[in-house]
Amino acid sequence: MLLLLLQTTSEISKDTLANGVRNTIDKLSSMSGGEITDYLLQHALNIGLKILAAVLIYIIGFWIIKRIKKILKKLFAFRNMDASLSSFLQSFVSISLIIFLIIITVSTLGVDTSSFVALLAGSGLAVGMALSGTLQNFAGGIMILLFRPFKVGDFIDAGGNAGTVKSIKITATELITPDRKVIIVPNGQLSSGTINNYSSSDKRRCEWNIGISYGDNYDNAEKVIKEMLGKNPMVLNDPEPPFVGLSQLGDSAVVLVVRAWVESGNYWALFFEMNARFYKELPGHGINFPFPQMDVHLDGKKENGN
After folding, report:
1. Fold type of domain 2-130
2. 156 φ/ψ angles, rounded to the nearest 5 degrees
3. Which residues pair with 236 in a beta bridge?
4. Are 255 and 248 in contact (CB under 8 A)?
5. CATH code, residues 147-197
6. What percent of the chain has pLDDT over 70?
7. 6 band by pLDDT with thresholds 50, 70 and 90
8. Residue 216, phi then psi, degrees to nearest 5
9. What is the CATH number assigned to the segment(s) 203-285?
10. What pTM, to 2 d.p., does this model score?
11. pLDDT tens-digit series, residues 186-205
12. What are the sequence ranges of the domains in the chain?
């Protein structure tokens, strides 16, 4: 389709040029020597004025483009925009404006620029269709770098992958998982999906589910667990002190939910430390951990005649 468009445009331009030359020759052949001289001088003056106007338009337009580039550079620096994105946007805007300026300058000279515009439009359409997936990731990268839902060093869970952000590039983001694997996630997937940024807050809430046996003293269990958490220096009382509540009555256990606030950097340290302490110390306070069991009751009565 693009080739057909270019071929048609080229044929129209050739026909228009041929007709113009033919009409000019016919017009000159019917003029006298003095009329031809006046005609040429008039056209030379018109051409000179067009060239002068084109030169002025180009100089003024180029100066305006330079001013726009400086303004964009200051704006990006003020917003602390990523260096790679800032450089790309400045180059993209500059090239686009220069192409637009060249089209205006050439059209001022009286040259038909419809073929050039059609070529640019057709090329843009072809490139866009061929790179649709890449362009989606590119647009996603721009959105991420502009709005910054996360930054390098944050621990995020997005697109089914969890890890620490190693780098944010134009088309993809690199994550490092806790077991030191490097995962490259397309930015299109990140920008259009849900992002759970664990590092966006300086505090997180740890939660444990502890099953105790039926018959154990609940008040005692609540008291002991709160004392254990209160003595741990990593546990915070803001925004709220440690909480213990009865979550559910299971088939073989009474499940307690335990919650405590901690600085984000100490989340896993507190989680694993308290897991170990609950397991080691709670039985010493008369709090037992049940396991799935089944009680079978046998009826000792026998039927008559047996």
Report:
1. Helix Hairpins (1.10.287)
2. -125, 160
3. 261
4. yes
5. 2.30.30.60
6. 72
7. very low
8. -70, 150
9. 3.30.70.100
10. 0.52
11. 888 887 778 888 888 888 89
12. 2-130, 147-197, 203-285
